[in-house]
């Protein structure tokens, strides 16, 4: 029965097909631009806020909590060496997340 109705249905013209493809391309470009803006925003905020937190924490520890013994000082400063590595890892994860999001959206639209 479906084959019978499909014979009378008008096929889309070439102009309509091209217009649909153009709309899909514009939607993909808009999503990519929005995604890039969000990526810059999130990564920028991560860097700024973590830098401010890092500087204030270093200042507070240096002024109030730094012990007199060398080994205690070394143990107290170890987290300050790990913090930039953690922030760099978070930055890498955010960039990876946004790139996968863009890639997934591109594949999804083109293969449907």
Describe the 3D structure.
With about 110 residues, the protein is mostly helical. The protein has one domain (about 15-110). About 90% of the residues lie in helices and about 0% in strands. It has 3 helices and no strands. It has helices at about 1-10, 15-65, 70-110. Helix 2 runs antiparallel to helix 3 (about 70-110). The chain is rod-shaped. The two termini are about 25 Å apart. One of its GO terms (biological process) is endoplasmic reticulum tubular network organization. Keywords: Membrane, Transmembrane, Transmembrane helix. This is Endoplasmic reticulum junction formation protein lunapark. InterPro entries: Lnp.
Layout of helices and strands, plus pairs?
Layout (H helix, E strand, L loop, with lengths): L1 H7 L5 H52 L4 H41 L2
InterPro entries: Lnp
Organism: Mus musculus
Keywords: Membrane, Transmembrane, Transmembrane helix
Unreliable residue stretches: none
Structural class determined from secondary elements? mainly alpha
Distance between the termini: 25 Å
Multimeric state of these chains? single chain
Biggest β-sheet description: none
Task: Please state the average pLDDT score.
Answer: 87
Number of helices: 3
What is the tally of beta strands?
0
The ordered H/E elements are HHH
Q: How many domains is the backbone divided into?
A: 1
Helix content: over 70%
Outline, from the CA principal axes?
rod-shaped
What Rg, in angstroms, do the CA atoms define?
A: 27 Å
Strand composition percent: under 5%
Keywords: Membrane, Transmembrane, Transmembrane helix
Protein name: Endoplasmic reticulum junction formation protein lunapark
GO biological process, one term: endoplasmic reticulum tubular network organization
Transmembrane segments: 42-65, 77-99
